[in-house]
Amino acid sequence: MTIRTADLAAEHAAYRREIDAAVARVLDRGIFILGEEVSNFEKQFASYLGGAKHVIAVANGTEALALSLLAAGVKAGDEVIAPALTAVPTIAAIEMAGATPVLADVDDHFCLDADSLEHAISVRTKAVIPVHLYGQPCRMDEIKEIASRHGLAIVEDACQAHGAEYKGRKAGTLGDAGCFSFYPTKNLGAYGDGGAVCTNSDELAEKLLLLRNYGQRKRYEHVAKGWNSRLDELQAAILSAKLKHLEEWNETRRLLAGIYFEKLRGVQLPKIYGQVKHVFHQFVVRSPSRDGLRAFLEENGVLTDVHYPKAVHEQPAYAKLAPRGRSLANSERAAAEIVSLPVHHLLGKEDAEKVCGLVVEFK
Ligand SMILES: *Cc1c(COP(=O)(O)O)cnc(C)c1O
Questions:
Q1: Is the pTM above the cut of 0.85?
Q2: Would you tell me the crossing angle of helices 88-96 and 61-71 to the nearest 10 degrees?
Q3: Residues whose CB is less than 8 angstroms from the CB of residue 78 and which lie 6 or more positions away in sequence, other chains included
Q4: CA of 156 to the centre of ligand 1 (A)
Q5: Which of 192, 229, 355, 357 is the most buried (most CB within 10 A)?
Q6: How far does residue 195's CA lie from ligand 1's centre (Å)?
Q7: How far is the CA of 120 from the centre of ligand 1 (A)?
């Protein structure tokens, strides 16, 4: 049997009764946009995040980021700093908000490096996006200290960090706004696209509610220029059903990661900061012979992935973002060496052990 990086059909088979009941409830009610499923999910997710004041559900993680920047007052001509090792949508969101992305480097934990952030700041910088990459929260105290010294808004990219914690507080509640994606393979995933913003600011929440729904305060009363970026009722109902299992699923990921930490040899293991709870959206190791290792694993029935094979400025569409006079060497080197081993809540201990055995066997 092949060991995969995700298995959404198997997941549906395992939770069919709960999901089908949620879907039937929505179909029978006949309300598909901005009804009680969305507002119930927003309340449940806010409570899951430790009593966050507001959760505003939106269409996807990319728009959660773009709309948060807009709500925070980011405008054309402003600069927003983000790491060079991230999913491209982090950067796309900055341009969707009309601003200019400025790339900073990551540290050896794959998170935004505080010194590199500080060096990337200019008079035009308005916001920073720390990305909690692979499910590990960034060093938020250091980032917050720099942001407050320079008057920058913090929009967290928590799209891979549902349930992760920094000093006992949930990722996504640590900045001015925290953005989540519910892309199907995320730790909490919909059956399609979905996203949400978490914020404790009444002002940001009010703007986000307008921005996601054509700028309407009431029907046909347009007090702002907005987008259409809504989570739909079906996805909200499915997410509410799945949210009940998120803690247990994250614990399974952490257990599998524990086996990897114990039994892997011959690759560089991920580095974990103190005082964080990592939720292992990905388990990412480094190897100088990454491509050979991947081929060997695949020949033996283990599929892997690379998040991401290029730093953002190494992508043709974003080549112009390569900074002059600042190094992004950690991001570039990581992209050439990293490989994501299978980790998801339907894998068993024996699957992780098989992967370890093959990695050890690979020469
Ligand atoms: C998934 C992801 C996004 C984008 O989310 P979508 O829902 O696909 O728009 C942004 N940033 C990171 C780090 C992600 O992993």
A1: yes
A2: 40
A3: 99, 100, 124, 125, 126, 127
A4: 12
A5: 355
A6: 9
A7: 23
Spatial strand order of the sheet with 169-170 comes to: 169-170, 165-166, 276-277
Pocket test for ligand 1, best of 65, 112, 183, 281 (most atoms within 8 A of CB): 183
C-beta 183 within 6 A of ligand 1: yes
Radius of gyration over every alpha carbon of the chain, rounded to an integer in angstroms: 20
- Could you identify the residue written with the tokens 């220029």? 225
Contact between 339 and 287 (Cβ < 8 Å): yes
Q: 291: closest CA among 281, 302, 306? A: 306
363 pLDDT more than 90: no
DSSP character for 314? Answer: G
Q: In the beta sheet, which residues pair with residue 199?
A: 54
What does the block give as tokens for 147?
A: 């942001």
What value does the mean pLDDT take over residues 307-328? 97
Q: Which of 90, 131, 156, 197 for mutating ligand 1's site (highest number of atoms within 8 Å of CB)?
A: 90
- Does residue 312 have its Cβ closer than 6 Å to ligand 1? no
Q: Which atom of ligand 1 is least distant from the CA of 132?
A: 13
Q: What is the pLDDT of residue 134?
A: 98
* pLDDT above 90 as % of the chain: 99
Closest CA to 186 of 238, 262, 128: 238
Strands (E), the chain: 54-58, 79-83, 100-104, 125-128, 153-157, 165-166, 169-170, 177-181, 195-199, 216-218, 221-222, 276-277, 283-286, 338-341
End-to-end CA distance of the chain: 23
Q: At 290, is the pLDDT very low, low, confident or very high (cuts 50, 70, 90)? A: very high
Note the pLDDT tens digit of each residue in 71-118. 999 999 999 999 999 999 999 999 999 999 999 999 999 999 999 999
3-state secondary structure string across 59-80:
CCHHHHHHHHHHHCCCCCCCEE
Q: Does the CB atom of residue 157 touch ligand 1 within 6 A?
A: yes
